[in-house]
Amino acid sequence: MKEFAIIYRSEPMGEIKLTAEGNLVVSKEWENWMGGVAAQNKLVSPGMRLGNEGRTVKPGNIITNGPYAEVKEIVGGLSIFRAESIEEALEMAKSCPILNVTEGSVEVRDIIQMNG
Amino acid sequence: MYQAEAFLLMQEKELIPYLYRTEFRKITAVLCRSLGIEHISVAEDLVGDTFLLAAETWGLKGIPQNPAAWLYTVAKNKAKDLLKRNTLFSQKISPQIQYATDDKHEIEIDLSAQNIQDSQLQMMFAICHPGIPSEAQIGLSLRILCSFSIDEIADAFLTNKETINKRLYRAKEKLKQDNVKIELPPESEIDKRIENVLTTLYLLFNEGYYSSNNNAVLREDLCLEAMRLTHMLTENENTNKPAVSALLALMCFHASRFEARVDSNGELILYEDQDISLWNRELILQGERYLNKASTGNYLSKYHWEAAIAYWHTTTNNEDQKWEKILSLYNQLLMMEYSPIAALNRTYALSKVYGNEEAIIEAEKLNLDNNHLYHCLLGELYSDVNLQKAIEHLQKALRLSRVAVDKKVIKNKISKLGKLKNV
Question: Which among A18, A38, A46, B254 has the fewest CB atoms less than 10 Å away?
Answer without folding.
Answer: A18
